[in-house]
Amino acid sequence: MSRKGLTIMPGAVVTSECDIQGDITVGTRTVIHPKARIIAEAGPIRIGESNLIEEQVEIINSVPNTILIVGDFNVFEVGAQVHSREVGNSNVFESKCFVGPQVRISNGCVIGAMCSLTAPEQLPENTIVFGEGCLRRVATERPMPQTLQLDFLSKILPNYHHLLMVSRPSVSSIKVRDRSPNYYLVPTLLAELMDSQQYQLPGTAVPRKPSVMSAPQHQQQPQQQQQPVVMQQQQQQTQMMPLGQEAFAFEPLEGQAIPSALLEQQTRAPEPFAGSSSQARGATMQEVFIQGVAAVSQVDLLTARLRGLCREQAVFLDHEEAFSVPLVNAQSTNPVASASGTTPFVHLRARRSVLPNARELGLWPVLRYLGSVESGDRVCRRSYLEACVNGPLVGFLKSIGFKKDFEFIAEGEVYVRGRAKVLIYAVFEVVYPNSGDMQMSLPSKGRNVAPNSLMVEVSAVGSPADDTLQREVAELMELLHPLVIPGRVDHARLACR
């Protein structure tokens, strides 16, 4: 694999397992996954800053006498094939899409999964291509830059893959095996070299001497005469490691690291968790969701759109039970409850699959804690904790004071797109068989509560500090409009008893 002509700017992460051929320039903060193919077949390729190129992506310049320019903040998902003559900024190429060589992509466009563009055209800004027929519409705003994901991959990929780097006069690097004067492999064992007290890297810039050698001119002469032991050891290390060029000398950081402030928090006594406050000890995750409805006549069109947008899908048939218990000492621990005069409740949801082969598929019962809902302009959020369980869960919850509020059976499909998921299901009443033990028998579907419509829920679970989670859920719901009508539910009234 020839990599002549490759230029990698500082801050870019390019794995050595990718296939890169020809005159290619990779901009700073761009991440290229393994097994990606970037081939400058008929002309150079210039990739801008902060681009994300995932596995099995093909970016090929097949138009003679042209330069393929890829802008900034673009996302190329798994299996995307882009032969376009020009790519602007803030575009998203979803999985398995194809863009021909006569197509020009402007800014803020989204090419849906499995969509193919081959006719000569220039795509207008903020255009979304979706569905089997490559339907189009105009979005209200551009896709958000994946800055958090780029930062995460820049830290994770060097731990599991070798990286390609370009030696430049102002950037030092370690030469490993490859005898080419331009390209170097930085192994993952670089951290072991950093642990030593002093290390040397080859370079061509003006060498910087360590602080033990940097002194005023009137003090350099006595130090050279004394020949300290430290300098002799450094000279021996330099002689044992032939570099062929002038070398930089780096020193370890002086002083000890400051202890983490979290150690003090870990020693404190645990506080009771009541509500969805971010300061509570149990609020480690939050769920952001939007609920809506879809007509039964639009289900086929809705599922076809989701198959093009999402990577994974599955069917489910779950039995869900809702439990709650009042907080006895909530008046003293929760100032909101004492001011309003209401008694807050702790809500739990127990869900288990009633499919015949649920155990073979590894579908274990799940117990979820749901905090109080905080409604916003477009989305809702609440604290969220989840754990897999086994055994007589319902009897255990009743023995510790929980009361069953309601139960239902949900049958439908789930689609996954990145961190967000879409649930489309119908709600049925629960019918138990005529057996004595209701705990061991599986319930069955009864009357359909809403036969003319289906529930649609778009949700994502993440850290409370992640501000992009709400935007991802809102953008995914926007792609389903007008097939799905978002509903505004007053959860505060539902919580009142």
Automatic annotation (TrEMBL):
GO (cellular component) term, any one: dynactin complex
Coiled-coil segments on the chain, per record: none
The UniProt record lists the keyword Transmembrane helix: no
Chief localisation class: cytoplasm
GO annotation, biological process: mitotic spindle organization; regulation of transcription by RNA polymerase II
Keywords: Activator, Cytoplasm, Cytoskeleton, Nucleus, Transcription, Transcription regulation
Biased composition annotated in UniProt, kind: Low complexity: 216-227
UniProt keyword Membrane, yes or no: no
Entry GO MF terms: dynein complex binding; transcription coregulator activity
Matching CDD domains: LbH_Dynactin_6
One Pfam family from the record: Med18
Subunit structure comment from the entry: Component of the Mediator complex.
Assigned protein family: Belongs to the Mediator complex subunit 18 family.
Protein name: Mediator of RNA polymerase II transcription subunit 18
